[in-house]
Amino acid sequence: MTHNSAMLIGESFIGEGAEAAHINTVLGRRDGPVGTAWVTALAMPRPGNAAFVAVVRPGLPAKPLTLFVNKASITSDEHGVLTWGAAQAGVASGVADAVAEGIVSEADAHELLLIAAVWVNPEARDAAKVYANNRAATKAALAAGAAGAPSVLDVLAARDHPFNPYYDAAAPASAAASGPDAASGA
Q1: Which residues are catalytic?
Q2: With a threshold of 0.85, does the pTM exceed it?
Q3: What is the DSSP pairing of strand 112-119 with strand 21-29?
Q4: Cβ atoms of 121 and 186 closer than 8 Å
Q5: Pairing of strands 52-53, 65-70
Q6: How far apart are CA 177 and CA 186, in angstroms?
Q7: Comparing C-alpha atoms, which of 157, 152, 142 is closest to residue 11?
Q8: Each residue of 135-165: b (16+ CB within 10 Å) or e?
């Protein structure tokens, strides 16, 4: 981050099926709008969606300090364990990977805050895949934010052919509506 008021926004979707990870990141300085949003989200939990500080292990939070915001309300004990366990560990490790690889400046890590909005499908079962996909998706989202990706030209080129794991404009209507766990959404 080179500008005091800069806010870097990133997105990534990694993996397949119920264990896929969809991450949205917002990275910015503690004394800017990201800092205000970070503290507000932490202080105002909602039923099923309580933001928390992601840790590499208890007592060792990710740096930049990372607020984990679950996009899917917790639906069962197993879903909660995967969200607060494997997905949280993946996000924290992905943040550390981004710092280790210079995507996020190690020198600035203490002055930055990260909000990570994280999708964990309630149907997920494989903790190792949830961890690996969230780790990779977090690093990729931070890299996209740092690079300013995607370009406007890339978005304009794709606008008539949208696709995501839950919808394909080129597919017949019945196939697009039945994508992987279409009812859950991310």
Answers
A1: 22
A2: yes
A3: antiparallel
A4: yes
A5: antiparallel
A6: 14
A7: 142
A8: bbbbbbbbbbbbeeeeeeeeeeeeeeeeeeb
Range(s) within the chain of domains with CATH label 3.30.230.60: 7-149
pLDDT digit string (tens) for 56-91?
999 999 999 999 999 999 999 999 999 999 999 999
Q: Which two structure tokens, joined as six digits, stand for 49?
A: 């969606």
DSSP E strands in 54-176: the ranges are 55-57, 60-61, 65-70, 112-119, 163-164, 167-168
Q: Is 48 exposed, middle or buried (0-12, 13-18, 19+ CB in 10 A)?
A: exposed
Phi/psi at 106 (5° precision): -60, -40
Q: Which CATH superfamily is domain 7-149 in?
A: Formaldehyde-activating enzyme (3.30.230.60)
- Environment class of residue 174 by beta-carbon count within 10 Å: exposed (0-12), middle (13-18) or buried (19+)? exposed
